[in-house]
Design brief:
32% strand, 414 residues, 6-stranded mixed sheet, STM4215-like
Length: 414
């Protein structure tokens, strides 16, 4: 048993993830099984409100389901029999006499659509709604990358996440029901039989409903009648009319024998990223040693020899202008080595959402720093992201958040 929510304002079906408010109504859906079609037939008979004139007045005619459990039926409803055990007429009985799976009657689904090959299954889409929180996350990321703020007005979000509900493929079957009307008098038979002829109108088409499902019924043209008037025996007087009704129904799932869920909820993919097959195409990786995409088996570059290495020497007197010389001379600076370069190091202080000034434990050479905020390279300048007060102090224009990752890479001044 599951349900859908329908927005009365926008007429948009919603999934059952929120509590219904004044603008929503819950539409329940039960499993469409053989028993569900049978109950729909019984409920249709009760909805006809068939009455007949008896010795006690104008009373409703009881409707009973013919099944092998006759003893249970007699115990549950003792008003349909008298003290001698005979049926009290008039009475209407309903019996399913045939069940056919006819491939020519396909209903609304003409193709044999296979279910999704996973543990959820599901084939036919019955509802879809916008996943607001995840779609907003994609929009905020694009807004922050382009405009350094979230919820930038006028930005069109192309990454929309939808939540879709699917059910197994409906299989259509034709159920044949035999309605038997038994009365003592011809007047009772006429009163009961008339609604079967006139209520569908000029056609023999009816609609059966049960648990949110609808089934099509077709009343057959022949109303076969019989009686025992001509026998003139001691047998009680009896009139009998049989009506055939064919119901085009559908079954969803395997009922209690189904090993998959009754319905499945999935979210669509808005972005698919695939690494390029550089091994097959024999392309040169965009990063050294082919580690940019993390692909194994990429041919590595030949390690450089000491004679191929160019030493970069920083002139400490011209460090503020970023001047540098190349060559093997020592100059007035020092070569960049692993020992004097701090890669992705941390500040002394930790971001707390309000702190804007951060210090370094080891002084740096000016114009050699690279500051990363959640992996994004910051730009120096009072009109941009940060300014450098001295060799150990960084002043941010906007305070980094407490949950942001703040790192700095620079050449040590020691």
């Amino acid at each position: 048993m599951f349900g859908l929510k329908e927005d009365n304002k926008k007429n948009t079906p919603l999934l059952p993830t929120q509590r219904p408010d004044d603008y929503e109504k819950v539409i329940p859906f039960g499993p469409s099984t053989i028993e569900n079609i049978d109950v729909a037939m019984i409920e249709y008979m009760n909805e006809l409100q068939l009455f007949a004139t008896t010795q006690k007045g104008f009373e409703k005619v009881p409707v009973v389901w013919v099944s092998p459990e006759r003893s249970l039926l007699s115990k549950r409803n003792q008003t349909i029999r008298d003290n001698s055990g005979n049926l009290i007429l008039p009475i209407i009985s309903v019996e399913r006499t045939n069940l056919v799976k006819d491939p020519t009657r396909k209903g609304t689904v003409w193709g044999n659509v296979l279910p999704v090959k996973d543990e959820k299954g599901g084939t036919i889409k019955i509802a879809r709604r916008l996943k607001q929180d995840k779609s907003s996350n994609f929009a905020n990321v694009e807004s922050y990358r382009g405009y350094k703020q979230i919820n930038f007005p006028g930005l069109k979000n192309k990454k929309i996440v939808y939540e879709t509900m699917t059910i197994p493929l409906p299989v259509y079957v034709t159920s044949t029901y035999e309605i038997t009307i038994r009365t003592e008098y011809q007047q009772q038979m006429n009163e009961i039989l008339t609604p079967f002829i006139t209520k569908p109108g000029a056609i023999n088409y009816i609609i059966l409903r049960r648990s949110g499902h609808k089934y099509e019924g077709f009343i057959q043209e022949d109303f076969s009648q019989s009686n025992n008037f001509s026998s003139f025996t001691n047998e009680e007087r009896k009139l009998e009319t049989k009506i055939q009704i064919e119901v085009l129904g559908y079954l969803i799932g395997e009922n209690k024998n189904q090993d998959r869920p009754k319905y499945a909820i999935r979210e669509n993919a808005v972005e698919i990223k695939m690494p390029r097959e550089r091994i097959v195409l024999q392309e040169t990786p965009e990063r050294d040693n082919g580690r940019f995409y993390g692909l194994a088996g990429v041919v590595r570059h030949k390690p450089p020899t000491p004679s191929d290495v160019t030493t970069f020497v920083f002139d400490r007197n011209a460090a503020s202008s970023g001047a540098a010389t190349t060559g093997g001379t020592a100059g007035t600076g020092a070569p960049i080595t692993v020992d004097n370069y701090n890669a992705r190091g941390a500040f002394v202080e930790s971001p707390n959402g309000t702190l804007t000034t951060f210090t370094l434990s080891i002084p740096m050479i000016s114009n050699t720093e690279m500051i990363f905020r959640d992996g994004i390279l910051m730009t120096i300048g009072s009109a941009y992201d940060y300014t450098v007060t001295n060799s150990t102090t960084i002043e941010f224009t906007e305070a980094p958040g407490a949950n942001e990752n703040l790192t700095i890479s620079y050449v040590k001044d020691n």
